[in-house]
Amino acid sequence: MKKVPMRQCVGCQNMVSKRELIRVIKTSEGEIRLDATGKQNGRGAYICKKKECLEKAMKKHSLERSLKVAIPDEIYDSLKEELNRIE
Description:
- By secondary structure, this protein is of the alpha+beta class.
- The protein has three helices and five strands.
- The chain has helices at 51-60, 62-67, 73-86, and strands at 6-8, 15-17, 21-26, 32-35, 43-48.
- The strands form two sheets. It has a three-stranded antiparallel β-sheet. Strands 1-2 form a two-stranded antiparallel ribbon.
- Strand 3 (21-26) and strand 4 form a beta hairpin.
- The longest helix is centred in the C-terminal third of the chain and has 14 residues, at 73-86.
- It starts with 5 loop residues before the first strand and ends with a helix.
């Protein structure tokens, strides 16, 4: 049986399969972006595909803490749009 990679959501703090999460990365240039492939270089943080998790992460600033950088509002807006497309 193959091992399933698990990651922790920065919003709800639950361990979830990596494929069920959205990855947000900070590149070496300090740019913040969504990683659709899950394989881009950079420091990554994972968040569930639920609006509640994104709201928790925004409220607690856990995404910013995980990536060790301030997150601009455009990134949060693009995450919200991505969640709307998924749901």
